[in-house]
């Protein structure tokens, strides 16, 4: 059995002189704030399969009038491309109980790779370059986990200094868990949010992981000057191609480079989408219940920071789905067809470019498709306790496309005399006989 110890204590023990990285052997404090108690509840198992995809790229010219400082107009014309897509997913509730779907998504790209190699998980969109001249040429993901193995020893608690708000000269202690927003404070470079590290630090630390690899000593007055809480803050940094650079862990009031020294029992999937073509998100229900304000009830979530939503396409909010006739509850063993239908416009000018590598993959007749469906069984606390009933099903598949007058098509469902018949909601379709006029 692994030896387990608390990271935080009421008294500091000196680190050995000359040790680059030493695990702090500290005594667990009293009055430690608990990690959000979210017991696991029942979950519904779903399957998701891409059965149809049509991508139709159309070239055109975009004309724009620009004005100089004197107000004199000039007309510029740029090459542009519209990509209209129809993607149909067959989504099935495999379980014996009803479940509520709250989100569908898909992404089409030259290549998509999913690996369970991350502490936090996330999605990275790469474009075949690693432009280190940009203000912040990195991806980063931050959050709190219940614990990690640091140098093969279990760590599941953290100490941080007290934080205060100042209002007209009156300092007020920020309570837990609001004080945890300290971890989301970002360094700024050229107006770009950069997370807990500056770009210069990231460059230095990724080359020499000993620069910031020493665990600071816990202050002698730690009990009086800070708080201790269950959980471990982690930030993971990647370059623009999705290559891992640095893993940072918040220890004794400072971020410490722990690259290669930490792991977890349940690694999370890191999805790398290389040279994307188009992607879309359909939100059709309330997001999973979260509460980070202890004054409103039991805390069920803690802050996250970083690039969690970068790269998402359109998100259609669910305020009027009920009026449009969409029922987002799947009965046991029910299957339905969900269609993504939209047009994305790309203008080739100094501020952007068309997805050239993604287009090349499309024109070759091979494209990789990622799709997901997320659901829960119950989204409200039961007798004051919130249970995690969320599950997500995903599929990554390579599509072989045929070119015709309507673009590039993958078809695993329709016969020659069939078509898709939209329902009242515009996203749910059925297969129907093709009518002739």
Describe the 3D structure:
The protein has 437 residues and is mostly beta strands. The chain has helices at residues 199-207, 222-225, 356-363; strands at residues 4-5, 46-67, 73-93, 99-118, 122-126, 138-145, 148-150, 153-155, 157-161, 164-167, 170-173, 188-189, 192-193, 226-230, 232-239, 244-251, 254-257, 262-263, 268-283, 305-306, 314-316, 329-330, 335-347, 366-376, 391-400, 402-404, 407-411, 418-422, 428-433. A hairpin with a 2-residue loop joins strand 7 and strand 8. The chain starts with a strand and ends with a strand. Mean pLDDT is 83; it is low at 1-28 and 310-319.
In short, what is this structure?
The chain is mainly beta and 437 residues long. Helix content is 5%, strand content 47%. The protein has helices spanning 199-207, 222-225, 356-363, and strands spanning 4-5, 46-67, 73-93, 99-118, 122-126, 138-145, 148-150, 153-155, 157-161, 164-167, 170-173, 188-189, 192-193, 226-230, 232-239, 244-251, 254-257, 262-263, 268-283, 305-306, 314-316, 329-330, 335-347, 366-376, 391-400, 402-404, 407-411, 418-422, 428-433.
Can you tag this structure with a few keywords?
437 residues, mainly beta, 7-stranded antiparallel sheet, 3 helices, 29 strands, 5% helix, globular
């Amino acid at each position: 059995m692994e030896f387990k110890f608390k990271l935080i204590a009421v008294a500091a023990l000196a680190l050995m002189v000359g040790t680059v990285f030493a695990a702090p052997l500290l005594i667990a404090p009293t009055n430690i704030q608990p990690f959000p108690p979210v017991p696991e509840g029942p979950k519904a198992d779903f399957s998701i399969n891409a059965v149809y995809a049509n991508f139709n790229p159309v070239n055109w010219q975009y004309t724009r009038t620009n004005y100089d400082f004197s107000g004199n107009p000039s007309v510029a014309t740029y090459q542009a491309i519209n990509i209209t897509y129809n993607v149909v997913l067959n989504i099935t509730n495999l379980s014996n109980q009803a479940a509520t779907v709250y989100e569908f998504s898909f992404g089409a790209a030259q290549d998509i790779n999913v690996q369970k190699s991350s502490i936090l998980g996330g999605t990275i969109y790469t474009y075949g370059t690693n432009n280190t001249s940009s203000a912040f040429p990195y991806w980063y993901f931050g959050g709190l986990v219940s614990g990690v193995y640091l140098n093969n020893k279990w760590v599941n608690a953290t100490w941080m200094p007290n934080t205060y708000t100042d209002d007209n000269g009156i300092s007020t202690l920020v309570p837990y868990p609001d004080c945890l927003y300290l971890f989301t404070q970002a360094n700024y470079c050229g107006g770009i949010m950069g997370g807990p590290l500056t770009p210069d630090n990231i460059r230095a630390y990724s080359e020499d992981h000993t620069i910031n690899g020493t665990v600071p000593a816990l202050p002698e007055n730690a009990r009086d000057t800070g708080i201790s809480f269950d959980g471990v803050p982690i930030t993971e940094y990647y370059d623009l191609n999705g290559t891992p650079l640095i893993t940072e862990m918040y220890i004794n009031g400072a971020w410490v480079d722990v690259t290669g020294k930490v792991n977890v029992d349940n690694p999370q999937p890191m999805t790398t989408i290389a040279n994307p073509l188009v992607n879309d998100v359909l939100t059709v229900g309330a997001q999973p219940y979260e509460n980070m304000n202890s004054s409103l009830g039991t805390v069920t979530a803690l802050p996250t920071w970083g690039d969690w939503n970068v790269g998402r396409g359109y998100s259609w909010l669910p305020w009027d789905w009920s009026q449009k006739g969409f029922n987002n509850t799947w009965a046991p063993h029910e299957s339905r067809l969900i269609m993504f239908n939209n047009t994305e416009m790309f203008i080739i000018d100094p501020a952007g470019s068309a997805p050239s590598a993604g287009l090349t993959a499309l024109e070759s007749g091979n494209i990789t498709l990622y799709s997901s469906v997320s659901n829960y069984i119950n989204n409200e606390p039961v007798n004051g306790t919130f249970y995690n009933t969320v599950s997500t099903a995903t599929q990554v598949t390579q599509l072989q496309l045929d070119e015709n007058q309507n673009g590039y098509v993958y078809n695993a469902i329709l016969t020659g005399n069939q078509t898709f018949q939209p329902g009242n909601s515009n996203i749910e379709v059925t297969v129907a006989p093709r009518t002739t006029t």
